[in-house]
Amino acid sequence: DAMFKVGFLSDVYQEKPLSEAVPKIRTRFPPEPNGYLHIGHSKAIAINFGFSRFHGGECILRFDDTNPAGEEERYYEAIRDIVNWLGFKPVRETCASDNFEKLRELAIELIKRDGAYVCHCTPAEVRAQRGERGEGKEKTLGGERFACSHRTRPIEESLAEFKAMREGKYKAGEAALRMKQDITDPNPQMWDLFAWRIPEGDKQHHRSTETCLPTYDFAHALCDSIEGITHSLCTTEFELSRVSYEWLCDKLEVYRPNQREYGRLNLTGTVLSKRKIIKLVNDGYVRDWDDPRLYTLIALRRRGIPPGAILNFVNDLGVTKSGSNVQTAKFEFSVRQFLETTVPRLMVVTEPLKIIIDDLPDDHEELLEMPFSKDPAFGTHMIPFTKTVYIERSDFREVDSPDYFRLAPGKTVGLLKVPYPITATTFEKDPTTGVITCVHAKYEKPEEGAAAKKPKSFIHWVAESPRHNSPVRAEIRAFNPLFKSDDPNSHPDGFLADINPDSEQIFPDAMVETGFHEIRASAPWPKQEAEEGDIEANKHSIRFQGMRVAYFAVDRETTADKLILNRIVTLKDTQGK
Ligand code: ATP
Ligand code: MG
Ligand code: MG
Predict the structure, then answer these.
(1) Which top EC class is named for this enzyme in its record (predicted)?
(2) Which of 370, 421, 463, 529 has the fewest other C-beta atoms within 10 Å?
(3) Residue 274 CA: which ligand is closest?
């Protein structure tokens, strides 16, 4: 939580001492329940929850449900779940819609104070009042501005019309309540913003029977006020809105929270927009909203990225006003760094090649003690070493060369943790496909008193030992960037034209060593997730490093018969796209 001591937030913290009425820091995270949260939201979550936590305060999870069109009940649950997964506990949950009654009273109060009026202008008329001329390509801004003709109507009339709006007299666009601000102010957020309107379409609000609803501008400030939010933290697009936010609270003489802004977090090389992700899902470019190639938080979770890695990443970016465009490679670097010290290590062979060590007896079975990590705190486990083992196909070459140090005919290589190295002797090929089916090798156990051969390199392997349930067979799904460029959004033929055709690579015959059984039994990894207390979340938490290969996590599609592993990230940054 170091980030919350520094930067602009500590200034706000000092600027307004807490009062008796507002004895502790209270923030809110205000998502609209109209989609799954993405990595950008994790910054908003970390800031709002982190800032209040750092100061011993509290954070409310508020569903900002003022726009029925795209909102759905399932998103409330998904948002709640993912906030929880990130390790944050809201002090309570609220909805903007909980306050509709109170907001209506405040709207009436605002009219009575001569701070709002009912307007019947068309959208074109409103644009003209705001100095917009022409439409489409012809459109210009900055023209002369003028007041709406309804703004001078009597207060009584606006009160009656507002009542009529709520009683269903008008259709969408025929009447709206507007704030009586200052059209001459250079700030567009002061140009008589809409406060209540009748939404387009006939989709009923899922939690209210109202057909006339408050706008974001009206509801957001006043919900903050009603809930006693001390610090209303939002992204910099709302900087100009601070003036209207304060105007509204002051006009009504209600408690006014501090609005402060921070920069948005954007990832390059991917798309975060809901509309675009829907397209990717519907057109089958990805498996679903939680496809590991996406950057929704459910996708990152499914891919196996631990919440701690996401929070570290956000923390490292720091809380500043400037927005950040961060490359996905930088995010992966952060993830790799986090996993390096927090997950156990195993041997995983992605594309197995069978090795028969001819001079070992058929029933040779030696148990070797393997540490789970460089960190002794992770403990050790026993793995069998047998006559038949599997190595990575890419660790063998038919033709040796002097600059090659892994296995080839006549070449000696070490098998990680096995007492003595092996030397390849011959190999067999499938006569029709030409694929190597098996390599024969010799175990380099020295004669009594002789020195053991020292191999130039060590490779990973998995034993064939039915008695020890080895190998554990798995399908590995390796993910590459979903787009070819860093900026899919600006592709001249649209973002779909920038799709990388090789963004998912399947290894159907992968093998994992027996330590996997132990890891599965004692998940979650990293262990600190368990302390967050959410056992449900542990189903997302079987992660490990496949030595020399990559970090892996068990995918949610895994069944009793089939283990599916997602490649979280490679061990090194090899994408170099
Ligand atoms: P999107 O259009 O990407 O869904 P949004 O602003 O409509 O974004 P909300 O559901 O309103 O999404 O977001 C909830 C909170 O998260 C808001 O306070 C918003 O400012 C913040 N937020 C959204 N996207 C980002 C981002 N990329 N970086 C930081 N904060 C963000
Ligand atoms: Mg949104
Ligand atoms: Mg929003």
Answers:
(1) ligase
(2) 370
(3) 1
Contact 334, 311 (CB under 8 A): no
Q: Tell me the per-residue pLDDT of 340-364, one tens digit each, with 9 for 90 and over.
A: 999 999 999 999 999 999 999 999 9
Ligand 1 site, residue 62, Cβ cutoff 6 A: no
Q: Helices (H), strands (E): how many in the chain?
A: 14, 27
Q: Among this protein's residues, is 139 annotated catalytic?
A: no
> Does the C-beta of 33 come closer than 6 Å to ligand 1?
no
Compute the distance between CA of residue 104 and CA of residue 214 in angstroms, rounded to an integer: 8
Q: Respond yes or no: is residue 32 known to be catalytic.
A: yes
Instruction: Note the pLDDT tens digit of each residue in 5-51.
Output: 434 455 555 555 566 656 788 999 999 999 999 999 999 999 999 88
Q: How far apart are CA 271 and CA 497, in angstroms?
A: 13
How far is 329 from 334, CA to CA, in rounded Å?
9
Pairwise CA distance, residues 427 & 247, whole Å: 81
What's the rounded Cα separation, in Å, for the pair 12 and 230?
10
Kindly report, residue by residue over 382-428, the tens digit of the pLDDT.
Answer: 999 999 999 999 999 999 998 999 999 999 999 999 999 999 999 99
* DSSP state letter for 296: B
* Closest residue by Cα to residue 480 from 494, 497, 499, 453: 499
Of 331, 377, 315, 349, the residue nearest 568 (C-alpha)? 331
Index of the ligand 1 atom closest to the CA of residue 44: 30
Q: Which ligand is nearest to the CA of 320?
A: 1
In 3D, which of 556, 534, 73, 65 has the Cα closest to residue 300? 556
67-86 tens-digit pLDDT: 888 888 889 999 999 999 99
How confident is the model at residue 3, as a pLDDT? 45
pLDDT band at 528 (very low <50, low <70, confident <90, very high): low
pLDDT at 12 (0 to 100): 53
Instruction: Give the ligand at the shortest distance from the Cα of 48.
Output: 1
CA of 183 from ligand 1 middle (Å) equals: 28
Of 235, 265, 277, 295, best ligand 1 pocket probe by most atoms within 8 Å of the beta carbon: 235
Name residues whose C-beta falls within 8 Å of residue 326's C-beta, 6 or more positions apart in sequence.
265, 266, 267, 268, 317
Structural domains in the chain, CATH included, are: 2-262 (3.40.50.620), 267-303+312-345+474-570 (2.40.240.10)
State the closest ligand 1 atom to the C-alpha of 266, by its place in the atom list counted from 1: 27
Mean pLDDT of 279-291: 94
Residue with tokens 């923390």: 315
Q: Is 504 a catalytic residue?
A: no
Residue of 27, 41, 238 with the most ligand 1 atoms within 8 Å of its CB, for mutation = 41
How high is the ipTM of this complex? 0.95
Q: What are phi and psi of 472, to 5 degrees?
A: -90, 120
Both structure tokens of 101:
């009654």
Contacting residues for 330 by C-beta, under 8 A, at least 6 apart: none
Q: Is the pLDDT of residue 316 over 90?
A: no
CB-CB contact of 290 with 22 (8 Å): no
Contact 395, 464 (CB under 8 A): no
Alpha helices, DSSP H, located in 214-253: 216-226, 241-252
